[in-house]
């Protein structure tokens, strides 16, 4: 096994690609701060190569995200469009309506349901669960929901998980996401439906958007960028897309920093990447 290539800049590989699928949390920002150099890298790729699609597992529709990126300081001329796990999840929700649903998640994720006529009921009256995360992700952990999930499992209710991420790094603190609850639910033997990375629905939307922006594009000419092995890297591998692994402090890469350690972890996970970078910079 040879060590993964260390790539110091996006410019070093940009000429090989005509479109970019860029993860948000852990690559562009940490929920609080825009990472240095990212805006310039995305803008320069757009100017010299092609469209930039921000591909995020946020459990909210894409129209919510621009204002969040504005607050963090990412200029709007750095990206062409945003595709979210929330976008991909809405179709899964619609497919089960008008069956009543039980909502599991905080009020901040309610934009996901906008325009959908969902009959929300208590768990005992629901026919499926929509999980966007914990009600108080600043203080709660997945263990706080084990009894609730056991009750749901006893009813054999399917769960739609709006964010497959297990954790995100929020300003230096790891925050549990909906994916952590979904993992417990799967371990209880129950069905979980996902829309976000690494699953196909979010990529279907993103690839369609690239085609709308620049016409038919060979997948070999699309580069994915991400920091999550089980989401960004796995998803890109499954979609036959080249992927650049971001191994900096803002991500959730299990602590792998040097080329040998990253190569070993990728091999152990059965994954591959064209290279690794400390940060997304031009």
How many distinct beta strands?
Answer: 12
Secondary-structure element string: HEHEHEHEEHEEEHEHEHEHE
Structure class? alpha/beta
At the fold tier of CATH, the topology name of one domain is Rossmann fold
How far the N terminus sits from the C terminus, by CA atoms, comes to 28 Å
Put simply, the count of helices is 9
Tell me, rounded to a whole number, the average pLDDT: 93
Structural account:
The protein has 282 residues and is α/β, with parallel strands linked by helices. The chain has a domain at 41-49 and 56-216 and 238-256: Rossmann fold. It is built from nine helices and twelve strands. The protein has helices spanning 11-14, 38-48, 65-72, 85-96, 146-154, 178-187, 200-214, 229-238, 259-269, and strands at 19-22, 52-56, 81-84, 101-104, 128-131, 159-161, 167-170, 173-176, 192-194, 222-226, 242-246, 275-277. The chain has a six-stranded parallel beta sheet. It has a four-stranded parallel beta sheet with strand order 4-5-6-9, sandwiched between helices. Strands 7-8 form a two-stranded antiparallel ribbon. The chain starts with 10 loop residues before the first helix and ends in a 5-residue tail after the last strand.
């Amino acid at each position: 096994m040879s060590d993964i290539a260390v790539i110091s800049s996006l410019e070093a590989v940009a000429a090989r690609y005509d479109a970019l699928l860029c993860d948000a949390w852990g690559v562009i920002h940490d929920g609080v701060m825009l990472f240095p150099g990212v805006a310039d890298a995305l803008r320069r790729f757009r100017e010299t190569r092609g469209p930039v699609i921000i591909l995020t597992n946020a459990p909210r529709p894409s129209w919510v995200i621009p204002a969040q990126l504005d607050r963090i300081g990412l200029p709007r001329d750095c990206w062409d469009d945003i595709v979210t796990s929330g976008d991909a999840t809405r179709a899964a929700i619609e497919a089960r309506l008008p069956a009543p649903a039980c909502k599991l998640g905080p009020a901040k994720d309610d934009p996901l349901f906008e325009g959908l006529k969902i009959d929300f009921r208590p768990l005992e009256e629901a026919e499926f669960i929509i999980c966007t995360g914990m009600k108080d992700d600043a203080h709660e952990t997945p263990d706080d929901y084990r009894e609730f999930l056991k009750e749901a499992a006893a009813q054999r209710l399917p769960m739609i998980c709006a964010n497959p991420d297990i954790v995100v790094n929020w300003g230096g603190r790891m925050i549990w996401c909906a994916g952590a609850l979904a993992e417990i639910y799967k371990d209880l033997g129950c069905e979980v439906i996902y829309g976000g990375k690494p699953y196909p629905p979010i990529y279907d939307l993103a690839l369609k958007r690239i085609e709308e922006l620049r016409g038919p594009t060979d997948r070999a000419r699309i580069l994915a960028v991400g920091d999550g092995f089980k989401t960004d890297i796995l998803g890109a591998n499954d979609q036959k897309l080249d992927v650049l692994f971001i191994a900096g402090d803002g991500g959730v890469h299990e602590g792998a920093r040097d080329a040998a350690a990253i190569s070993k972890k990728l091999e152990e996970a059965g994954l591959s990447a064209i290279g690794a970078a400390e940060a997304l910079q031009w």
